[in-house]
């Protein structure tokens, strides 16, 4: 068997953004298109109470949507550095001026989801984003302050009000040290209704941790 055949068994030969042939996670056109995207403010409609300002890279569509599906559901973990680098751009755009050190708090996956995906996919992205930002001279750390509780219902079948109630019971705060100064950025891959992010923010606030901003890769709602 040729070396190329062996590599095809290990490394995907298609771009995660467009399914065209590629020698890495993304083809050059997709890399160029993503490099041109600028993170911006986004708001779900309606916006849940208590949701901090949210910043996203792009809409949950096109190549971004395909990349996230490949990463989460097809276990293409080689996309973590690429997506983490994109998330780093969102974090950088979201941090308030003069905020000082930055703490990234990933929204955790349930144990069942983490087992299915061979690890917590958002935590992996947060670690990659923090590494990217530190290479640029920023003072950034990742703190797993939240713990996901087992899901009682499939949220895809719930109304917006039911999703909000389920989200409020979905997380617990870990007994760790709290960030000392600086900005706390809650990070996730996608924002839909914002219920999960608002509930996470409320849980952290009850434990004395103020979330200043939210950074996500994609938004299902149109950017503001």
Automatic annotation (TrEMBL):
Belongs to the ComF/GntX family. Coiled coil: none annotated. It comes from the Bacteria. Residues 157-219 form the Phosphoribosyltransferase domain. This is ComF family protein. InterPro entries: ComF/GntX_DNA_util-trans, PRTase-like, PRTase_dom. It comes from Dactylosporangium maewongense.
């Amino acid at each position: 068997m040729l070396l190329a055949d062996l590599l095809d068994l290990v490394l995907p030969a298609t771009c995660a953004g467009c399914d065209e042939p590629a020698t890495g996670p993304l083809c050059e056109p997709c890399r160029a298109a993503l490099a041109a995207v600028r993170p911006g403010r986004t708001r779900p409609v309606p916006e849940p109470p208590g949701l901090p300002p949210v910043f996203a890279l792009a809409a949950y569509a096109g190549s971004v949507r395909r990349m996230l599906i490949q990463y989460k559901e097809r276990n293409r973990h080689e996309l973590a550095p690429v997506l983490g680098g994109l998330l780093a751009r969102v974090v950088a755009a979201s941090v308030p001026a003069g905020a000082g050190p930055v703490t990234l708090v990933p929204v955790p996956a349930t144990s069942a989801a983490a087992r299915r995906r061979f690890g917590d996919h958002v935590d992996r992205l947060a670690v990659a984003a923090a590494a990217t930002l530190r290479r640029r001279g920023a003072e950034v750390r990742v703190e797993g302050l939240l713990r996901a509780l087992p899901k009682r219902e499939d949220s895809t079948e719930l109304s917006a009000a039911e999703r909000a109630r389920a989200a409020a019971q979905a997380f617990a705060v870990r007994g760790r040290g709290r960030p000392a100064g600086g900005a706390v950025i809650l990070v996730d891959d996608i924002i839909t209704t914002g219920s999960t992010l608002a509930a996470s923010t409320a849980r952290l606030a009850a434990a004395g941790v103020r979330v200043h901003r939210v950074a996500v890769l994609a938004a299902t709602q149109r950017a503001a």
